[in-house]
Amino acid sequence: MNKGDRRVEGTLMVQVRAVTVALATTALLVTAGCSSGGRPEPAGPSVSAGTGSTPSRSAPARSAAPEETPPAKGSVKVLRTVTEGLDTPWGLAPLPGSGLLVSSRDKGTITRIDEKTGGKTLLGEVPGVAPAGEGGLLGIALSPDYASDHMIYAYLTTASDNRIVRMLYDERKPSGEQLGAPDTVFKGIPKGVIHNGGRIAFGPDRMLYAGTGETGDRGLAQDKESLGGKILRMTPEGEPAPGNPFPDSVVYSYGHRNVQGLAWDGRQRLWASEFGQDTWDELNQIKPGDNYGWPVVEGIGHDPKYHDPVARWHTDEASPSGIAYAEGSIWMAALKGQRLWRIPLNGVKASAAPESFLKGEYGRLRTVVSAGGDKLWLTTSETDGRGTPVKGDDRLLELEVG
Question: Which residue windows are coiled coil (predicted)?
Fold first, then answer.
């Protein structure tokens, strides 16, 4: 499909059959997942048995509702392009009622999008953002008390570190002046030209979670005293959350290379997407205090010291960023892979091989969030310096999934 073809407007229905994975070739998978040599031949995405989350006071309370049974095969329908012309969109946060907030990594701004008309309103520029490489203004999230405090949280790269700030949003003020001065909630997360992490989200427990990267310094991922290569869990004020696995620490899990997506399923279990290096990208089900292996293990290691991923992909098929939960599945946006992955869940593992949709249709895909029910919001990422933007990029899409 040429560049023009992948931008065809209108309704798109894609249905693909699940990929059958030869799980019996365990020895081959172990060799490929731990190899330090050349890239193995692509074998497509694979799933593992995974490890379930054990109830504990450090994990969000589970819902009593039974697991939603996903359909045997999925579908994706692009309902419409909501808006175009976004500059390096990264974070996306739906507002209560109507409207979506989107952050610009390189411009350091937050913009409100009218999801009905596609109209844009600039809230303002976030002071202190120092964009470079993969750093800048990254994830955004609304306060769990947004209805009363109107606070927006943002993960950003400064001249010295990565940090989380919060700002008052006052939509009564003129465009460009609607953001209050940032209040630093948490600082000191290592920064780099690469692997800055950046996804933040409030969990069902009303605690703030943040995915960080190891900045290219691999040793940080295994160092529990470092904030790099971790998933962090903290109170809205930036203190270690009650019940965290390590005393007086915000570290929730470690051994990560570059966490880019966070989402909770119907049982309130945390899932995270992670960039691999040369061989395997990962989707992990997160248990507090667990070690996810990097840099000792990339992909499946079959070593009890490290938590194996539930699903993995070769890096040219994924390079995953945001994830969302809808209709019994995790939906994962892929950058280099230029597609949307569906990972159907059943219990604590993937119930079938992942399916891909929209391959090459819209280029690099950055962030996907739930729009309620069977709807998703999805942003492209063609203007991030690694894409090949065409007229209209970047875009916000509305999807219907099943």
Answer: none
